[in-house]
């Protein structure tokens, strides 16, 4: 019997998936603050993408795909909002109003016939071949996470050798943008 | 370019501009340039502690008793890591601290240099924010910003890590005024939502069983908040209870005050919380020591939550109405609207809440803080009661360590002013009280400052008696000595079949001799009938005192909400102990 626990988890609430977008000062340690908040408070990070979006104002945009109960998701937003370098926090709904993409680079190393089959298989996706040799090719694909998952699964028996994924990025449809949190 | 200053000079210039009078610290290699500069700044007094944790708790005591930020200065590596407990403590209890840490020179960072550690990395989760200064021209901005972050919104600790080369380098100083404009607008304002205030008034009018549940946020909001809280109680006639941290915001001996609530709160406070139909939480955070079993926490009430920190809302308990803002600003509106909408509310509403008050009086009759006194052995509760009676005429500041003595102090010492009660609540840091008392005494040299201590806790930071002696700080360390880690012993008795595993201290020092070794006064009391005289002796000495109060070893702290139980199922005393804690409850702490 574990006597060190404080309390039982009594209610099992439904877990939801959300995309949280955070605008932060692009300064050293800022990603550690955001990620540390998630690990320290036991929140999930399913995927993470980060990059500078405004050089003049020195702003980076962090996109985090996360999951939790509605109460936890609310806490994630409010706790992020308290971090000093955070400018605003947005919660993008996972519905038709939100555009979601992930980019992946995939390298297939195989025989000629296998490579042909692999490229044929890719035709169902939006892709670009970035590099090709007689024994290999590298392709760039931009799609939904689950589509990339699918493609990876299919390419595996055909000699998929290396996978690099960016993590999910998102944007809302229409003319509205997220104002101050 | 004549107005260039060294980093070390800039540090002191900021401290002076921020009107810092005292800093607590300990020198070391990576802060020597700052210590070298100390001699040129007579208006900033440095208190040399014996361990950096002591500096942190002293700064906390200073901050809590004054409402101003506490400042500590530590060196790199172990200096910074020793301060971590105090920073975490301040973070949990929302105490404004500014920690200035030395760091190895910039070019050595990352090389595992002597006394190097990743200070900003280590302190990231236990500060509101921290900075590593990489450019001396940024130093004054960062330090002013540090003070702003520590003291605004929900207060808390911050840390500024200054590499040694930056302390030597010359750079520009940016004045506070010039800087103000450049600061990000950190949200501290209360956006008055008038419809919400009106909603609160409606609920207040409707309620038949109201209760005010107040916390440390009232104290942190300043003396105005305390005044407004008292006015709100007098306008409404509502009963009021307080968390551990909120004690003193409302007079402890007033009839409307039901005493502290929570795990060791009074029977009347906890039952009123459980049965109320309207709970107004003012600056408290539904901590797990308060709520007990969360599913059965106050099941029938509408809950209003006033808090400056939006992330406190709905974190542990879902509320019906939330007002995010500084307590004093929200209370000001509330008081104003009660007066406007329902003048003479207290009298007109008296009848409506009369049966509620009757019920409360019935609970009160249980006398849940009662204990069986003895004329042979000093009961710890009796010791605290006598201490209170003999010091209540003076403006007394009380600090505590953590454990049974802390709860007895909270139960039996009545506070009627804010900022007089300094205790480690959130983190529960044994060893907090002695250094905190030093900080309080530094801020209030002419006031009576007492650390109500346990013998186990106080040994954790006992070295600071040397600090008290050096600065002639006449703190009084009142040890309720039961030779056990009393709270651990109590839990082992109730939950672990009396297996007192490692909770007895077999080789305690002679506290009287220990006091004398530090150049202080030691007093021991062993019998109830000598207690008053010995306390009077302690109070008459204008020197640091260690008072070894030898108390009953087996006394337990009651009342108590046993683990896994809601508010309305309290243990009132030894006769309730048996069969009251389920196996399930045993795994809850």
Any descriptors?
heterodimer, A: 181 residues, alpha+beta, five-stranded antiparallel beta sheet, four-stranded antiparallel beta sheet, 4 helices, 9 strands, 39% strand, disordered N terminus, B: 589 residues, alpha/beta, six-stranded parallel beta sheet, 26 helices, 20 strands, globular
Provide an overview of this structure:
The complex is a heterodimer of chains A (181) and B (589). Helix content of chain A is 25%, strand content 39%. By secondary structure, chain A is of the alpha+beta class. In chain A, strands 5, 6, 7, 8 and 9 form a 5-stranded antiparallel β-sheet that branches. The N and C termini of chain A lie far apart (44 Å). By secondary structure, chain B is of the alpha/beta class. Chain B is 38% helix and 16% strand. In chain B, the strands form 4 sheets. A 6-stranded parallel β-sheet of chain B has the order 3-2-4-5-7-6, with helices on both faces. Classes of the chains: A alpha+beta (181), B alpha/beta (589). The interface between A and B is medium-sized, with 25 and 27 residues.
- Helicity of chain A, in percent? 25-40%
Biggest β-sheet: strands ordered side by side in the sheet of chain B: 3-2-4-5-7-6
Silhouette of chain A: elongated
Please give the radius of gyration of chain B in angstroms.
25 Å
Q: How many strands, what sense, and barrel or not for the largest sheet of chain B?
A: 6 strands, parallel
Taking all residues together, what is the mean pLDDT of chain B?
Answer: 94
Structural class of chain A: alpha+beta
Helix content of chain B: 25-40%
| Spatial extent as radius of gyration of chain A | 20 Å
Q: Which consecutive residue ranges of chain A, at least 5 long each, have pLDDT under 50? A: 1-5
Number of discrete helical segments of chain B:
26
Low-pLDDT runs of 5+ residues of chain B are: 181-187
Mean pLDDT of chain A: 90
Specify which chain pair forms the largest interface. A-B, 25 and 27 residues
Sketch the major β-sheet of chain A: 5 strands, antiparallel
How many β-strand stretches of chain B? 20
Cα distance, first to last residue of chain B?
62 Å
Compressed to H and E, one letter per element, the order of chain A equals EHEEHEEHEEHEE
How widely separated are the two ends of chain A?
44 Å
Strand content of chain B: 15-25%
């Amino acid at each position: 019997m574990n006597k060190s626990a404080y309390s039982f988890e009594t209610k099992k609430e439904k877990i939801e998936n959300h995309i949280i977008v955070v605008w932060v000062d692009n300064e050293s340690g800022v990603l550690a603050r955001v990620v540390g908040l998630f690990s320290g408070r036991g929140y999930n990070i399913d995927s993470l993408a980060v990059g500078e979006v405004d050089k003049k104002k020195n702003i980076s945009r962090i996109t985090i795909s996360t999951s939790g109960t509605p109460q936890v998701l609310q806490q994630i937003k409010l706790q992020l909002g308290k971090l000093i370098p955070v400018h605003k926090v947005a919660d993008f709904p996972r519905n038709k109003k939100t555009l979601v993409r992930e980019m992946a680079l995939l390298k297939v190393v195989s025989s000629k016939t296998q490579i042909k089959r692999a490229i044929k298989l890719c035709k169902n996706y939006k892709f670009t071949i970035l590099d090709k040799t007689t024994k290999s090719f590298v392709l760039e694909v931009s799609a939904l996470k689950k589509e990339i998952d699918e493609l990876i699964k299919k390419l595996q028996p055909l000699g998929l050798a290396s996978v690099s994924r960016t993590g999910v990025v998102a944007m809302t449809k229409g003319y509205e943008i997220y104002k101050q949190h | 370019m004549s107005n260039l200053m060294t980093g070390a000079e800039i540090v002191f210039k900021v401290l002076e501009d921020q009107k810092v009078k005292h800093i607590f610290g300990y020198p070391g290699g990576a802060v020597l340039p700052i210590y070298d500069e100390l001699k040129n700044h007579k208006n900033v007094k440095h208190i040399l502690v014996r361990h950096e944790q002591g500096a942190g708790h002293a700064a906390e005591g200073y901050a809590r008793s004054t409402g101003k930020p506490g400042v500590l200065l530590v060196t790199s590596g172990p200096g910074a890591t020793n301060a971590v407990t105090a920073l975490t403590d301040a973070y949990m209890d929302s105490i404004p601290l500014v920690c200035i840490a030395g760091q190895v020179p910039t070019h050595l960072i990352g090389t595992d240099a002597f006394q190097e550690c990743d200070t900003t990395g280590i302190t990231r989760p236990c500060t509101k924010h921290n900075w590593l200064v990489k450019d001396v021209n940024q130093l004054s901005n960062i330090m002013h910003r540090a003070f702003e972050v520590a003291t605004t919104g929900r207060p808390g600790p911050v840390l500024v890590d200054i590499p040694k080369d930056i302390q030597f380098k010359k750079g520009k100083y940016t004045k506070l005024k010039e800087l103000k404009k450049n600061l990000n607008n950190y949200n501290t304002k209360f956006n008055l939502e008038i419809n919400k205030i009106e909603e609160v008034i409606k609920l207040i009018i409707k309620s038949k069983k109201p209760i005010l549940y107040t916390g440390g946020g009232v104290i942190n909001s300043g003396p105005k908040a305390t005044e407004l809280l008292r006015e709100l109680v007098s306008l409404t006639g509502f009963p009021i209870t307080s968390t551990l941290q909120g004690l003193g915001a409302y007079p402890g001996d007033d009839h409307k005050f039901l005493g502290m609530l929570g795990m060791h709160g009074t029977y009347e406070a906890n039952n009123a919380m459980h049965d109320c139909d309207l709970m107004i939480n003012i600056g408290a955070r539904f901590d797990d020591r308060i709520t007990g079993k969360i599913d059965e926490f106050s099941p029938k009430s509408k809950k209003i939550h006033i808090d400056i920190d939006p992330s406190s809302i709905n974190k542990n308990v879902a509320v019906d109405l939330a007002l995010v803002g500084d307590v004093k600003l929200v209370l000001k509106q509330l008081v104003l609207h009660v007066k406007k909408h329902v003048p003479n509310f207290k009298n007109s509403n008296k009848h409506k809440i009369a049966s509620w008050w009757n019920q409360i009086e019935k609970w009160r009759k249980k006398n849940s803080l009662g204990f069986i006194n003895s004329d042979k052995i000093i009961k710890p509760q009796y010791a605290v009661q006598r201490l209170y009676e003999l010091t209540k005429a003076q403006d007394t500041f009380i600090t505590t360590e953590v454990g049974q003595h802390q709860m007895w102090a909270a139960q039996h010492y009545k506070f009627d002013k804010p900022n007089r009660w300094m205790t480690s609540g959130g983190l529960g840091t044994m060893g907090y009280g002695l250094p905190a008392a030093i900080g309080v005494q530094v801020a209030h040299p002419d006031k009576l400052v007492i650390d109500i201590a346990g013998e186990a806790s106080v040994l954790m930071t006992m070295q600071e008696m040397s600090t008290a002696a050096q600065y002639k700080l006449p703190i009084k360390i009142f040890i309720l000595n039961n030779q056990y880690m009393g709270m651990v012993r109590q839990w082992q008795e109730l939950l672990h079949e009396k297996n007192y595993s490692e909770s007895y201290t077999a080789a305690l020092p002679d506290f009287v001799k220990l006091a004398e070794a530090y150049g202080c006064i030691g007093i021991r009391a062993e019998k109830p009938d000598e207690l008053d005289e010995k306390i009077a002796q302690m109070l008459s000495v204008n020197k640091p005192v260690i008072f070894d109060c030898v108390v009953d070893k087996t006394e337990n702290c009651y009342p108590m909400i046993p683990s896994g139980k809601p508010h309305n199922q309290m243990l009132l005393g030894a006769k309730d102990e048996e069969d009251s804690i389920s196996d399930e409850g045993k795994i809850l702490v």
